[in-house]
Design brief:
By secondary structure, the protein is mostly helical. It has 36 helices and no strands.
């Protein structure tokens, strides 16, 4: 199968010449040989990357106003139109060409340009509207870009700037732990307010100071908020003291209802995250329960293994929440534990038609086969060819030809954002045809079609997976499940924290594994090699399994959150595995474990294996 579909109207020789000229044109841009570039670019007007090339040149020649405006008009439907407009607007602002700026500005969510837009309004006589927007831009807990400085300075110099505005931002800054900004804001307060701000900063840095009542010399209108902030900070390191001080002293400070409930929620959830059985009672004290509180009330009741409390907490969910597979499963579990076996079985039978973790759990309980419903997307070859011929997708093809993966992905998502759900499915099949599996999977998800199992769960790197799985006495489906969750089969995936490759190995972990395998560590880049990555990832997962006595739920959670954290989450008494998974404090890890287990079961079916059921992973979790 050919990786790229060549446009019918362009011969191979012509396309090859265009690609050569394109690279030469880029060199001329870098060398600032403008006339030579303009000459060669004339031969590339029909080439898919022509707009990309022109964007690069204009980005270096923003003073060419007529050419910029021509580009914005002729290429308005391309991704590079908005990119060039942003660069040109910044150029206009730097040169104080305010009327032109206002004429061509488009809102994009770029805060620097937004500030410049309102400053342009201010400079052209619309001062009051600009200052009103400056107040909104001011009230954040982080520093705005330097392009906002002029507008903010005008606000500070105006009668609209008040002590309350400073207090609002100072509090927001400390909530984000932005001490540097808070120190700056303290300096803007009047002398009589600076003492209170000083106390707030001291308590932020040393929350234990709230134990000393001598700190609260003058508990004015800021006193309650300072006290609440100290409790919030203390709860991170000394939850017991935070609860004791809050309950014992909050009546001494003016604390509004919103702040009171925020701290009550903070303490109650902190107890739940620590798997403390007092959490349920504390959560019940909250007046208005949001989604997070409602769901954690169920989990807090599960921590108690109090099935009447669990039933009550489930009844407190909204009608829509109760329809989710997770809560349907726990509804059935509560009914069964409270003696209503028939109704519980009815829910299990219905839930077993769901292709997911809770559906598979239910299927095991009622001894039913797993529901997979594999219905591949059917797309005619002419539809794939037609989509590939659209210029947006020809641009993607060319960028991939030049191995510009990041730019190709950006162009792909720009292109598919224009498509209907039906054409998104076609795009997903095109990406699959181009052997771009991660993009194909995410594109199909964007279409909200979930039943093409071959596309969503490819069986790539089969040799690497099978060899390493058998070496460590693991089912290959387990490794496929981890890869599907970790990287979605992108061998060059790199996480924000630096994990690399198919099984997302951190470089330090890779070095340690190499030592344990008595191999020479090559480099961080070696983790993008599927052979090495799958070998190391499988070795590491097996090591976690051994550490946690063969318990798949614990090992899988540790692969995501680290073995140290999982050790902290071990119970004081034996807990059923489904309860332990449901009460994992980290949302990411909770979802991770259930997703990996679901994918393992799907890969069992994809590989026509019947060795595992999800109940095999659901051994009780023993005390640590």
């Amino acid at each position: 199968m050919c990786l790229f579909v060549l446009p019918a109207a362009v011969s191979g020789n012509t396309l090859e010449r265009q690609r050569t000229d394109f690279l030469q044109a880029e060199k001329l841009i870098a060398q600032r040989k403008d006339q030579a570039f303009l000459n060669i670019s004339q031969s590339l007007t029909g080439y898919p990357l022509y707009s990309y090339l022109q964007y690069q040149w204009l980005n270096n020649n923003l003073h060419e106003t007529s050419r910029v405006l021509m580009f914005l008009s002729e290429h308005k439907d391309t991704r590079y139109s908005s990119l060039l407009r942003s660069q040109w607007l910044s150029f206009l602002a730097r040169n104080e060409r305010w009327y032109e700026f206002l004429q061509h500005y488009r809102a994009t969510g770029n805060s620097a340009l937004e500030c410049q837009f309102y400053w342009a309004q201010y400079q052209t006589g619309n001062k009051q509207p600009a200052l009103n927007e400056a107040k909104r831009l001011w009230t954040v807990g982080y520093s705005r870009p330097e392009e906002c400085d002029a507008l903010i300075s005008a606000l500070i110099a105006s009668p609209m700037f008040t002590q309350d505005l400073i207090w609002q931002r100072l509090e927001l800054a400390l909530k984000k732990d932005n001490v540097r900004l808070a120190e700056y804001l303290k300096g803007l307060l009047s002398e009589k307010h600076q003492a209170a701000a000083d106390v707030w900063l001291r308590i932020h840095k040393t929350p234990a100071l709230i134990k000393d009542t001598s700190v609260w010399i003058n508990p004015d209108q800021q006193g309650g908020r300072i006290f609440a902030h100290g409790i919030d900070r203390m709860a991170k390191t000394d939850l017991e003291s935070a609860i004791q001080i809050w309950d014992g002293k909050k009546r001494h400070f003016p604390i509004d209802t919103v702040t009171d409930q925020r701290i009550e929620k903070r303490l109650a959830l902190a107890l739940a995250f620590k798997k403390d059985k007092r959490a349920y009672q504390r959560l019940n004290r909250l007046i208005n329960a949001d989604t997070v509180v409602r769901e954690w009330k169920v989990r807090a009741a599960l921590l108690e293994q109090n099935w009447r409390h669990i039933a009550d907490a489930l009844a407190g969910l909204t009608d829509q929440e109760r329809l989710e597979p997770r809560w349907r499963y726990w509804q059935a579990r509560a009914l069964a534990e409270n003696g209503d076996i028939l109704q519980a079985r009815n829910i299990y039978n219905s839930l077993a038609q769901d292709r997911g973790f809770y559906g598979f759990l239910a299927a095991d309980i009622v001894d039913k086969p797993y529901y997979l419903a594999d219905k591949p997307v059917l797309v005619a070859e002419r539809e794939l060819a037609a989509l590939a011929e659209e210029n947006d997708f020809k641009m993607v093809r060319e960028l991939r030809f030049f191995n510009r993966e990041q730019e190709a992905r950006r162009q792909w998502w720009f292109a598919v954002n224009k498509l209907s759900k039906e054409r998104l499915m076609t795009a997903a099949k095109l990406a699959q045809q181009w052997q771009w599996d991660q993009v194909a999977i995410f594109t199909l998800a964007k279409s909200e079609y979930w039943d093409d199992m071959g596309l969503r769960f490819p069986v790539n790197y089969l040799n690497e997976v099978s060899n390493n799985a058998y070496r460590h006495n693991l089912d290959p489906a387990v490794i496929f499940g981890l890869i599907r969750q970790e990287s979605v089969f992108d061998s060059h995936a790199k996480s924000p924290v630096g994990a690399r490759g198919l099984m997302q190995i951190m470089p330090k972990t890779g070095q340690q594994i190499a030592r344990e395998l008595h191999e020479k560590w090559q480099s961080e880049a070696s983790l993008f090699n599927p052979d090495i990555n799958v070998k190391y990832g499988t070795f590491y997962y097996k090591k976690l399994l051994n550490r946690f006595n063969g318990h798949f739920a614990l090992a899988t959670a540790a692969y995501n959150a680290g073995p140290g954290r999982v050790g902290q989450w071990l119970p004081n008494e034996t807990v059923p595995a489904d309860i332990w998974i449901e009460t994992i404090p980290f949302k990411e890890t909770r979802k991770y474990v259930s997703a990996v287990f679901s994918y393992i079961m799907i890969y069992q079916e994809r590989m026509h294996r019947k060795a595992l059921r999800i109940k095999d992973f659901m051994l009780d979790v023993l005390p640590g």
